Amino acid sequence: MAISKTLFVSLVLSLLLLDQVQSIQTDQVTSNAISEAAYSYPKIDCGGACKARCRLSSRPRLCKRACGTCCARCNCVPPGTSGNTETCPCYANMTTHGNRRKCP
């Protein structure tokens, strides 16, 4: 009889502890979703921005492909056909495996 009471009490305490852990995890997920929503920026039209950026390129398809990759990761494309990288540091700092600039 004493073993069954001890087993019952430990089971109840385990369930209470499990409920507390689940409550904490739910609060963390909710707070992460709120913080991500607060800092999300509207997506830009990468196709249009890269078309404008690469319009004078000698290799427009290659330029648009690289620009599209960079735009998707950074959500920005510098204005003009070259330079102006100070307006988008993420775009300017991205490099290839050979440490060359990735973004046109």
Automatic annotation (TrEMBL):
<keyword id="KW-0732">Signal</keyword>
<comment type="similarity">
    <text>Belongs to the GASA family.</text>
</comment>
<feature type="signal peptide">
    <location>
        <begin position="1"/>
        <end position="23"/>
    </location>
</feature>
<dbReference type="Pfam" id="PF02704">
    <property type="entry name" value="GASA"/>
</dbReference>
<protein>
    <submittedName>
        <fullName>Antimicrobial peptide</fullName>
    </submittedName>
</protein>
<dbReference type="InterPro" id="IPR003854">
    <property type="entry name" value="GASA"/>
</dbReference>
